[in-house]
């Protein structure tokens, strides 16, 4: 059954990709592949990239891999078969994504990575990521200040397969570990998940009822941790996140979570599309492959200015 271009684009916009030929797509289409839009950070990336693609005259093929490298590989096959001009990718694993990006490159389709790096250089045209180490140090400095430089704390870590999880943790510890009266009593992964963070926080709280603070590798886990603490009547525990989500912004404004670190997801995605457009037209971006965008501390002083992973 042959779909019109409009119906096909409606299908791919919600991640439903069948076995249609590339002829069904517009001549100039950019594929945007991210983790699940259930996480507002990834939705902001997709929205930012799609908006910039439309502004520059492209159609947007918006797809979701749900952090599944096999599904990501299938989406790459669909994008390649559709003859897209470029792929914007927030990948499903630093090692596991290299083959898919290389496959697209070998077919003449350039990839522009955002948020997460891959472990091999020279395969993607651009890897535009937040300066996670710089951002983590900002968050850690604020955490130390909020903790009064002493007390027991826990750290919630993201996915082990995600380079950002390790970089943020290192940034945190390079600051926090300088303070001998700050003692980490638990360090557990919650895989970037709010539900997992809730459950992990419940267990940590039972084992360490004297805990004073929680520093989280992302806002989604911070929200889960805060919900568990709230349910236990422990609003006294200091929680700091990382991402700059609207949910955490609202919590900060209400005196809940104390701080987060904004990584500019929307702007980052738009920059990737701008570079893709330049590369499509000229064969180069004018920038290095690996590019860092600095993060910004968000607390009660500036939370009101935060909207959809950007300061207004």
Describe the structure concisely for a colleague.
The chain contains ten helices and twelve strands.
Proportion of residues in β-strands: 15-25%
Low-confidence stretches: 1-24
Helical content class: 40-55%
CATH superfamily of the largest domain: Response regulator
CATH topology type of the largest domain: Rossmann fold
Put simply, the count of helices is 10
- Mean pLDDT equals 92
Q: Tell me about the largest β-sheet.
A: 6 strands, parallel
* Structural class label: alpha/beta
Principal-axis shape:
elongated
CATH class category name of the largest domain: Alpha Beta
Radius of gyration: 20 Å
Identify the strand order in the major beta sheet: 2-1-3-4-5-11
Distance between the termini: 46 Å
- Reading the helices and strands in chain order gives HEHEHEHEEHEHEHEHEHEHEE
Q: What is the CATH architecture annotation of the largest domain?
A: 3-Layer(aba) Sandwich
Count of distinct strands = 12
Total domain units? 2
């Amino acid at each position: 059954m042959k779909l019109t271009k409009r119906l096909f684009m409606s299908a791919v916009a919600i991640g439903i990709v069948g076995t249609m030929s590339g002829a069904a797509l517009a001549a100039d289409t950019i594929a945007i592949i991210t983790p699940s839009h259930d996480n507002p950070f990834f939705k902001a990336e997709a929205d930012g990239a799609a908006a910039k693609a439309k502004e520059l005259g492209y159609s947007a093929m918006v797809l979701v891999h749900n952090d599944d490298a096999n599904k990501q590989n299938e989406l790459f096959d669909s994008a390649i078969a559709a003859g897209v001009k470029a792929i914007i990718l927030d990948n499903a694993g630093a090692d596991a994504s290299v083959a898919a990006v290389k496959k697209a490159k070998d077919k003449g389709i350039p990839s522009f990575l955002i948020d997460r790096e891959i472990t091999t250089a020279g395969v993607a045209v651009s890897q535009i990521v937040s300066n996670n180490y710089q951002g983590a140090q900002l968050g850690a400095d604020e955490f130390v200040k909020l903790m009064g430089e002493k007390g027991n704390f826990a750290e919630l870590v993201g996915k082990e397969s995600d380079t950002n999880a390790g970089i943020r943790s290192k940034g945190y510890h390079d600051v926090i570990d300088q303070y001998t009266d700050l003692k980490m009593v638990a360090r557990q992964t919650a895989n970037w998940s709010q539900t997992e963070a809730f459950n992990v926080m419940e267990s940590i709280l039972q084992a360490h009822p004297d805990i004073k603070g929680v520093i989280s590798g992302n806002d989604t886990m911070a929200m889960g941790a805060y919900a568990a603490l709230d349910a236990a009547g422990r609003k006294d525990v200091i929680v700091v996140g990382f991402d700059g989500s609207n949910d955490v912004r609202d919590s900060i404004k209400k005196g809940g979570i104390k701080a987060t670190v904004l990584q500019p997801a929307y702007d980052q995605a738009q920059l990737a599309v701008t570079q893709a457009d330049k590369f499509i037209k000229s064969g180069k971006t004018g920038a290095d492959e690996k590019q860092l965008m600095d993060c910004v501390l968000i607390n009660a002083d500036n939370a009101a200015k935060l909207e959809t992973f950007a300061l207004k």
